[in-house]
Design goal:
The structure is a homodimer of 676-residue chains. With 676 residues, the first copy, chain A, is an alpha/beta fold. Chain A has 26 helices and 18 strands. The N and C termini of chain A lie far apart (80 Å).
Chain lengths: 676, 676
């Protein structure tokens, strides 16, 4: 027996099945049933959850129990399971059960078999195959179609490099619902763009003329930001790449006065608008990018106009990690080198045959490579050392060649601490290359080779808590102690997410995880405090869902700091046992309860007579137990071992209180108390 | 040409040379010269330094320069080299030069060759060969004589174990001078015994009758401690094992009223008293050990009566590390398991074919093994896990067997936090074994096998800063986070001592080391603060030379803490460029300048409403630059790069001041500020 969840009804579903599968069904004479469980669940008020509907269908068609008895027992089970969530939830599940029980349909393929097969569905690649580069068509497409074994070895790059920007060719169409922009309500704050884990929401601003060739119905609005007075704003969604998580809707600050549940962006079924969305998305990509200067990067609405150079990763719907990487790609992507530790980010970051890392129109984008859990920090350190060596070589060669003194002085002493400085240095390097190109001496040719190293490159060490707190900690600590200009970004899901949820030293006290089945008995390691103890490391702790502008400020400060920087970024995760569409709210709870602190430790402040530590969190105002109760990883211990859960929760509260008191005291130390 | 430093004069020296060497000299017709440089240097006031004397002899006999010119140039060089140390030092070196130049003698072996050869000198092992166990005679002795290659493989233990207490058979007789006790002056404080790096000074107390058979002239005094009223005290020196460092003399608090330079222990030439000292040492070993309870371990004079189970290691003369290990062996040696990281301590701790680790009369002693730099903490963690598992097995078996309820209750709930508790538990285990031995059931036999695991074993992770701060830090951090009952002892020489002085993250700012030839530019890593951030780790920082009773208190507290403990122990080292006999004074300077803090962080204090952190250092009262100037590792930068040295010294002073202010603030936090 086969039970399919399909929105297409029996006949159309049959037509859409691959011929090989239909053959199996025919050969084995399987009975096939169809239900549109997604619709049924949604109509019953269960949102995206289909488990109750599918359970109903199973008992309706399997004959495991007589139908009446099955129905009776399942309804009793629903009462048992959902009673503690309230009567409304019970009622919705009962409604979903009844509807599923009633609506499941036999797919009578025998009657359909002789009808002509529907036209073959386009493969994932079909829509863009014409535009795709030769390598995508020749190598990536067969791999996506699971025919990679048929490729000759000679088709693969011999040096291990892989073209960037290839995730865009894998149109997965996995979202039942996708966001739709309400141009009239939108305040153009950019928050939906910021939080989207898959970079499927993009804002653009351009002169009205740029929209002359827009498809009919292409949504726009007058730009609200005074910086773009007279220009036109649009917000577009890559509906075929969206995973339907709904984070964008959850963070939208605007409510429709006529219907408080309506926001300036709302989830709608994807299928009906797929074709139009594809056309609109394609046009929006053709619009020019807003120049990178002079954007005010501290205003999210402006900052989020920066082109992401990380798009459509294979991360979970609602992933809490990817928005941080996308942000880094927007801010620094055209001069990023990333050493990525093993973990989720190494999988969705380099998910052969595609990668979400991509390039801008100038061909600039992050250079990315993955290394092991245990040596990733050192791997990135090597990148830094190599770049610094190349820069030194270029500087030495500059002095050896007959070049204008002003140009040399500019190249040597350039302030590259912000975007404007980078742009100016790029112009100098271009001028240098033009001059040197005429010179055929070996020194000149060597300078040409190393000239790009005069532009400040941004080296980032990226990984999860399993890397930074545990397996790679020794190396991370060593690299942070080096004084070198590096940035470490820890995507802290507080658990080994990618390998199935093992406890790490970042796992909070009381959370259930693998190897911590009875709840973790020790407090979360304070990696930030350890790094601060060096005194010359920029250290910050952020939670995008709690304070987004704080996160952006930290990224900018960390990157501009001419030494080692460590960013601890709270990332909600499916391993937490939460509704992922509410991930940003969970981040707020973590901060409100004091379980996650927001702070910045900037050694540069000492030169101004200030305490380097700024505590950016308010005093905890939410009892920790309340925040914990909102996540299944904590809640499940309350159910299985209530006494132990209560003891651990109390101990965790004490640990949180102590930590808050400690940080408050450290941040309150008068700066002059720190000097003799 | 051969130039020998020998106290024996030409003829006797020739007689003492190995026949093989004499044969080489004869065959090659070498000219041989002899000087008693040690005596000449000492008489000139240079202490143990012989470099000037040997230089004089070289120029006197080599003919590289005419004698007059050589003398003239060398005297000028002495002025240049020692002028900044003052005229007295110059004068002493000139005197040593002149004496060496005049006293070097030709060894006319041609004239001596026909005289009968002197009787063969005893080998290192000879004095004790008769008492030595068969394994020592059969295996260790040939290896000490460098004939190990001649041993059959079958002679070696097949399981890799090696007998303890074997260093005592390697009588090296390397000290020109050894300490001699002045029983009339001595206040019996125990400090000389405590600091001796090679455990060659031992104090014993026994009833007067025990001394009836003492050799004539065996030095004793009436015991001064009221706890031993009416008993007799003696302090003996293993002159053949002493390295002559002089630390014992430097820490002696007593001065002779008649001659302030004389202490209650003084260095004297070893050779004249060797035979007597051997006899006295041998007798002192036969005296009974003082019972381990009820010693007051906080009084050094009593604590140092504990038998060391670590003796005669192959460490440098004046080593700053070994006194800590010896102390641990005294306090806990009969139930110690040691995981020893690679480094100096793994070399002198297991210097094949001997080991300094030994057993007491009951056959109990430390079990010791060496693992890698990168996994030593985990190695010891495995020991802990295995022991805990054996204890659990024993506890489960206890409940299964028909045993007296009182015995079981005692075994299960024993308080083993101090020596008395351990002794009581050992008695219970002995009683248990007697009872169970009668029982032939498999459970009883299994319990017999695991019964010893009911006595609390003390697991120690031992290593240097290269291990703890650098290569093994990831593992150490992981183990400290485990909550398990382990003790980590970091012998912090602030440099990779054993491999030749490479900088580690423990190397202080401004110190010159390999890989930090221009002085280390970053501050010393604050490993203790990192460990304190866990909140449930006992952390302490000690310097034996600065506060000896503090060190003992810390060892006792750490060991009794039923969780992870970390002791950071300042260890002076030849790599610091100091006179090793002044090592304990250097430790004082490190503490007085605030460069090394003394503190204890004891999580148990929270239960009493107290701040866990106690800062045991006084406020820094010595400018850091003064302390730095006393060590060559800092001083040499002042000579080679004075500007950079000054900048680093100023930065180091700021870092020390900041750290002091931070620790003072942390220790001053009211305990109730740490709870909500």
């Amino acid at each position: 027996m086969v039970l399919l969840n399909s929105p297409h009804g029996p006949a159309d579903t049959w037509a859409r099945l691959p011929e090989r599968l239909r053959q199996t069904i025919r050969t084995q004479a399987l009975r096939v049933f169809v239900i549109d469980a997604t619709r049924v669940g949604r109509e019953a008020g269960l949102g995206p959850h289909i488990n109750t509907v599918m359970q109903a269908c199973f008992f309706a068609v399997s004959g495991v129990l007589p139908r009446d008895e099955a129905s009776q027992r399942c309804r009793a089970a629903i009462h048992n399971t959902y009673a503690r969530k309230g009567e409304a939830v019970v009622a919705r599940n009962l409604a979903a059960f009844d509807a599923g029980f009633a609506q499941v349909q036999l797919l009578d393929w025998g009657a359909l078999a002789r009808e002509p097969a529907a036209p073959a569905q386009p493969t994932a690649l079909a829509p863009l195959a014409g535009d795709a580069p030769p390598f995508v068509r020749a190598v990536i497409a067969p791999m996506l179609e699971r025919r990679g074994d048929a490729l000759p070895v000679s088709a693969l790059p011999c040096d291990g490099t892989w073209p960037l920007g290839t995730a865009r060719y894998d149109k997965r169409n996995i979202a039942g619902e996708v966001p739709l922009w309400q141009s009239d309500l939108c305040v153009q704050c950019g928050k939906c763009v910021l939080v989207c884990p898959h970079a499927v929401i993009r804002a653009k601003v351009a002169a009205p003329e740029a929209f002359a060739a827009a498809p009919p119905g292409f949504a726009t609005a007058a730009a609200r930001d005074h910086a773009f007075a007279g220009q036109t704003f649009t917000l577009q969604v890559a509906a075929e790449d969206c995973t339907g998580c709904g984070l964008c809707v959850a963070v939208c600050p605007v409510s429709d006065p006529a219907d408080a549940r309506r926001r300036a962006i709302n989830m709608v079924p994807q299928r009906p608008l797929r074709t139009m969305a594809r056309r609109d998305w394609s046009f929006s990509l053709s619009l020019p990018e807003v120049p990178r200067t002079p954007l005010n990067l501290h205003r999210i609405g402006q900052q989020q106009l920066q082109q992401p150079l990380f798009e459509f990763p294979g991360a979970c719907a609602g992933c809490g990690e990817t928005p941080y990487l996308k942000l880094a790609s927007q801010l620094f992507g055209d001069r990023l080198l990333i050493a990525n530790a093993t973990g989720c980010s190494s999988i969705y970051g380099g998910n052969l045959p595609t990668t979400p890392w991509c390039t801008n129109a100038q061909g600039r984008g992050p250079a990315w490579s993955n290394s092991l859990f245990e040596d990733n920090a050192e791997f990135g350190f090597g990148m830094r050392v190599a770049l610094d060596q190349r820069r030194q070589t270029a500087l030495a060669l500059l002095a050896d060649l007959p070049l204008p003194a002003a140009l040399i002085a500019g190249l040597v002493s350039a302030d590259q601490s912000d975007e404007a400085g980078i742009v100016a240095q790029r112009q100098r390097v271009a001028a240098l290359k033009t001059l040197v190109q005429q010179n055929q001496t070996p020194q000149a040719q060597r300078l040409l080779h190393h000239a790009d190293a005069l532009v400040r490159t941004s080296v980032w060490l990226v990984g999860g808590d399993g890397w930074a707190y545990d397996i790679g900690f020794g190396g991370l600590d060593h690299v942070l102690a080096s004084g070198r200009d590096l940035n470490a970004l820890v995507l802290d899901t507080e658990v080994y997410s990618n390998t199935g949820g093992q406890a790490s030293k970042a796992t909070p006290m009381g959370a259930v995880a693998r190897f911590a089945a009875a709840g973790k008995a020790t407090a979360k390691k304070d990696l930030g405090l350890m790094a601060m103890s060096y005194g010359d490391v920029y250290v910050a702790s952020v939670a995008l869902g709690a304070r987004d502008e704080h996160t952006i400020r930290v990224f900018l400060e960390a990157e501009s700091y001419p030494g080692p920087a460590l960013i601890l970024a709270y990332a909600h995760c499916i391993a937490h046992g939460i509704a992922m569409g509410e991930g940003m709210t969970q981040q707020q709870l973590a901060v409100q309860s004091g379980r996650w602190l927001l702070y910045r430790f900037d050694p540069r402040r000492r030169a101004r007579g200030l305490n380097p530590l700024q505590l950016d969190s308010p005093a905890p105002r939410l009892p920790l137990a309340e925040a914990m109760a909102s996540e299944h990883r904590f809640r499940q211990l309350q159910q299985s071992q209530p006494t132990r859960a209560a003891a651990l929760a109390a101990a965790a509260q004490r640990a949180v209180d102590r930590r808050w008191a400690l940080y408050r005291a450290l941040a309150a130390l008068p700066a002059n108390a720190l000097e003799r």
